[in-house]
Each structure stands twice: as C-alpha cells, then as structure tokens.
Amino acid sequence: MEAESGTGHKGGIKFGTFLGVFTPSLLTILGVMMYLRFGWVVGNAGLLKSILILSMASGITLITGLSASAIATNIRVGVGGEYYMVSRSLGLELGGAIGIPLFLCRTLSLTLYAFGLAESLAFVWPAAWGEVPVQWMAAAIIILITAVAGRSADFTLKLQIPIMIAVGLSVLALALGVLTGPLQAPELQTNYERSAPEGFWLVFAVFFPAVTGFTAGIGMSGDLKDPRRSIPIGTILAVLSGYAVYALILMLLSVTGRVSGGQLATLDPNSPPVWASIAFLGGWLIFPGMWGAILSSAFGSALGGPRVLQALATDGLAPKFLGRVSRTGQPTMATWVTGLIALLAVLLGNLNAVGRLVTMFFLTLYITINLSAALETLAREPSYRPRLKVPAGISLFGSLAALSVMFLINPLVCLVAIFLEGLLLLFLRRKLLERRWGDVWAGVWNSLARFALLRLRTAGTQARNWRPHILLFTANPGHRRSLARLASGFNHDRGIVTVCQAVVGDLKEDYARIPAIQAEMETALDGDGLGAFCEVNIVKDFEEGVINITQANGYAGLEANTVMFGWPDDEQGMARLLRILGTVSGLKVSSLLAKLEDTEEIRSKQTLDIWWRGKQQNGDLMLLLGYLLTLNTDWKDSRIRLRTITPEGTGERDRMQAALQELVQEVRIPAEIEIFESNSPTGLYNLIAEYSQDADLVFMGMNLPEPEDLETYATVLFKLGSQFRNVVFVRNAGEFAGQLI
C-alpha cells in the first residue's frame, strides 16, 4: 500500500487509501449507533428483521459507494467529495442543490455523535449534581472537536489508528463476553411495543445513520494523494467490513443470555450502555472503544463538513471567505461555521431526533449520487471512461431504493425534502451560475435526441402532425427580434426556429467574424426568452448561399420545411427573394415573406385576417398558421377573420359562404367568415387593403411568377405590402399542400 502522507498544495498533507479513506470511513461506520442503539434495534425488531434492516441499509450504501467510486475513477476529484462529483456530473446548479444538504448532513452528524458521546458519559454523572445536562455536554463536545479538527487534519486522522485498535478490542470483548456466558435462542419475532411503537420504519430510520459513515473518506477527496484509486478501494472495503462487523454484533446481542430482550430495548441514559453488562471485563474495554469510535465519527464529520462548505465557496455558492485555508491547508473559517451550526442543532433535543433527520438528508444525497452515475453510463459520453464500471440499472435501483425508503420512513418529510431541494435548485438556476465544466446533461440530451430522431425517421411526418420548422433569414438586427418572435409564435414553441444570417464574403477571410455575430444574435434572442437557434454562414453569393443553406438545414424529420424572410428594402430586393422562393418551392419547402411595421413587436393582437382562395392556393397553410398563432398567450384573445372575394352578381357568394362554413366546422378552427363581391380584377388588391386596414396581421397567398413576369410581380407585391401595417405572404410548396387543415 502506498505511503500514507505526502506534501500537498498550500502546505497541506496528502493521505493514502488506508489513513485517508478506509480508516475514517470504517470508524465512522463503527460509531455511536453500534454501541448505543444496536441492542435497542435487536430488542425491538428481533434478529431476522434486524439483519433485514442491516442488509437493506448496507445494500443502499454499497450501491451508492459503487456509483460514487465509478464517478471518482473517471474524474480528478477535488475538494468537496460527493458534492464535487455531483456538480461535475449533473452540473453546478444540481450540485449546489445537493451540496448544501450534504453540508447539513455532515454538520448534523457532528451533532449526532456529540449527543451519542454525551449519552455514553451520562452514567458517570453524579446523582447529587441533579439531572444529566446531555445537551450542554453535547455542546461542549462540539466545541472541543471543532477546535481540534480546525487545527490539523493530519493530527486528527492519525488519532484514528489507536481508536481503531480500541474499537477492535471492544468488539472482541463483546464476543468473549457472549461466548463465555449463558446463551439463548435468538428472538426472531418483533417486539415493537417495548420501545418502538411506530414500528419497522422508525427502527430503520434510527439505525440508518450507522451505515452512512462510508462517505467520510469520500469527503476527504481534496486531501488524498490519488482519489481515483483510494476512494473506490477504501470505500468498498469499509462498507463490506462494516457489514460483517455489524452482522456479527447483531447476532451476538441476540443470543447472549446475560441480558433479556426487554433490557436490550431499554434506553436509560443514567445507566451504562448494555454492552458493559455483556462484555468480557465489563466496561473496561468497551468504554475506550465506544468513546474513541464516537470521537472518530465526530472528527470525520468535523473534517468533511467544512470541506463541502469550502468547495461550495470555491464555486461561488457560498461566501468566498469560507473557501480560505490556513497555512496547514485547513478550511478554518468553514470549520468554525460548521461547528456553530452543529451547536444550534443541539436544540433538536436528543439522539433519535437528530438521527432521523440525518437519515433523510443522507438518503437524498444517495439518490443523487446514484442518479449521477446512471446518467453518465446511459449518456455514453466519450469522456466517461471509469476504471470501475457499474451498470446503469444497479445505480438506478439504488436511487429508487433510497427514494422508497425515504417515503416509507415518513412520506410527508420525504415530499418536503424533495420540494425544498427543488426550490433550492430553482434558486440556483435563477442566479445564472456560470458553468466552468461540461456536465452529463449534454450527453443525456444528445442520446435522447438521437433516439427521438431515429424514431421520427421511422415514423415519418403526416399532415396531421405537421408543424412549421422555420429557417428565418434576416440581417437587420432591428427586425430580427420581431420576426423571430412571430416565427416562434407560428410553431407555438414546439417546432424548430433557426435564425440565420447569410454574410456575403470570403470564407477564409471572414470566418473569424462568425462567433461574435452569432453571440450577438443569441444574446438578443435569449434576452427576449425566444427558444430559437442561431447560425451564421459565409456565402459568396446571397441567392445561391440561401438555397444551399436551406437544402442542408436539419436532418431526420426535423429539416426546415418553411423558410421565412423579412421585408426587402426595394423592388430589386423583392425580385431577388422571389427568385430564391421559386427554387426553394421546387425543394418542397414553403415560404413566408413578412412585413412588420412595428419592429419591436406587433403591439395590438386582436384580429387576424386570412384572405382565402382555396386550400390549394396556400389557404390551408395560412389558416393553420393563424390558428397556431392564437395558441400563444399574446394572441389567445385574437379573432380570425376568414375573408374572400367572389364575382359580383353570379350567386357565387352563397356557395362560398356554405363551403367556408362547412370547412370551419370540419377543421374546428373558430373563424368569422366574411364574403365580399367585386368585379374589378385591377382593383382587387386595393379592395383587400381597404377591408383589412384595421387588422393587426394579414395573411395573403403568394404566387410564383414565370421568369418573364418576375419583375412585374415583384413590383406589384412590394407596393401591395406597403399598404398594410403587418402582413405575411404565404407560399405553401410542401408535400402536404392543400392537406394541412
């Protein structure tokens, strides 16, 4: 085994597997609960249920230990132990949401062990001095432990060697006392009426902190020479060793004839612990081991808690001064803050109350650690190459088991704990914390996206589930936001909106400009809360570049099926756009050409006018876009006016009225139908402009002229658009033209 110390950064000392992980973990496991509550567990639950409780608790911790070890063998673990692992795996916000409860776990554990030591000393309190001041004694113990732990981790950890010897002697004394005394058949039935009327889950909740000590070594991650090697070896060995020792002790307590089951279940702080009545030489070998184990566990918490707080401060989740270290490498300020909070926790009253609270906090931690390992495995990130591989199913089972146990112990507290951590997560997200490392979520979303795209490719898209995936071309920052907002409204934030700027230039010379332009676009759109993607492309020719970009955009069923342009500056610009739209239509991609007078946004959102010429004449897409727009909060109170013009004096009006009424009922889109009559083809556009002057947004169909008519049509379209405040010209060229409603 490697040397147990070495010089670390800032004058600190680095520890190896035995002294840095195995010893603190095992001694924290073999702590206060083993001496003061195992008799109570056996006396109430019986041997079989006691072994079941041990196996369940140890099973959860073993799986969690494996998950933590898998993560630890994949990254360079820094200060903060489990918090460091979770934050570098699931992200800073979720890491913080679990890191703060982890800090409280460690801190409350210090209070727990202080209460345990105070209870174990209560029997020596002279009766003449009155009632035993357990809380005051616990407070004094916390102050003493905090002072020692704050000075030197090296001294604190080296104290554990004689403590481990004392613990071993105490267990040996118990075994000799049982084997040299009268034996009896173990009680296999439960007797909760003795002192655990709440039943099995109360006993489990009180017992569970006895197995949480395996994280003590992980909490020293920043002080280890080789965390990747030491954490898995030391942690797993400590969990397995603890299980073996615990199982032996439970069996010894159940078969001894020196005390009855009722005596085992009795908790009397004024009497020596029940072990003293059973062990060889009475309490002479029990008390040193018990006090040493409790002190060791307390020291482990006093060392681990401040290091979590130090890591939180380093990541900006706690005040910066808490991250400072002394010349010996100790987080002194964090240590004293930990001690202060542990002192306040003394007000909780007693060992059992603190034990139940510690159990719930640790279980939430175990859920997250196992979830981290499972997601890392499922995401299959190229960077996730742990030396210790744990199947995702095992880690997920560990998460579900911990969650189930939380619920069974206390459903209300379980829900409250999850709710509070959810609030904490939301709070941290609102702070917009800067990520300085990649996390597993990118890999998870990547895997889910791949799965969804493969399914989408197989299933295909039908007219009934078609929605616009819009490729928006705009170079004008003043109009970009309003156009992007309208595009997002068209797909109801369910489809894909890609805002593209095609920059005419030379790729070699202008490529370096792309990040700055794209960052500017993303900042503007993110500031408006628009879920759009941004991209910048360098093209030699604008028309050819737009067509190439349209062909290459998207994949596997999420290709852009609609291109959208802002209004051109002049008639020549309109002609250029019409040439592009003619080619794009041949690719079965629909087109939208939008003129928005209100560049920030369409201020009034009351009326939508759709000028109808029939399904095959772009009407189906216009009506669908208008309906999708009304699904958005800003447009939910608007009304759709479905309008058309028929020849005057032909009787066509009644037929069209009936046809449109039937259509509206069939497609289930609420719309007001208005029919106008006119025999003036040359004044048709003027008539439309007159009737829709009060509309907030107008939809009109758009033709694709023959090449020889393009310039003329561009002039007409440009002049027509100038008569409206806000208008969208629509060309449905997709594969579902005439079928979308």
What does this structure look like?
The chain has 741 residues and is of the alpha/beta class. It folds into two domains: 5-430, Amino acid/polyamine transporter I, CATH 1.20.1740.10; 463-731, Rossmann fold, CATH 3.40.50. It is 57% helix and 9% strand. It is built from 27 helices and twelve strands. Strands 5-4-3-6-7-12-11-8-9-10 form a ten-stranded mixed beta sheet, with helices on both faces. β8, α24 and β9 form a beta-alpha-beta unit. The longest helix has 35 residues, at 38-72.
As a whole number of angstroms, the C-alpha radius of gyration is 36 Å
Contiguous runs where pLDDT drops below 50 for at least 5 residues: 1-11, 432-436
CATH topology-level name of the largest domain: Amino acid/polyamine transporter I
Briefly, what CATH class of the largest domain?
Answer: Mainly Alpha
Instruction: Report the CATH architecture of the largest domain.
Output: Up-down Bundle
The portion of residues assigned to helices is 55-70%
CATH superfamily of the largest domain: Amino acid/polyamine transporter I
Number of strands: 12
Distance between the termini: 73 Å
Q: How many structurally independent domains?
A: 2
Largest sheet: 10 strands, mixed
Count of DSSP helices?
27
Strand order in the largest sheet:
5-4-3-6-7-12-11-8-9-10
* 3D shape: elongated
| Estimated structural class | alpha/beta
Strand content: 5-15%
Q: Mean pLDDT, rounded to whole units?
A: 82
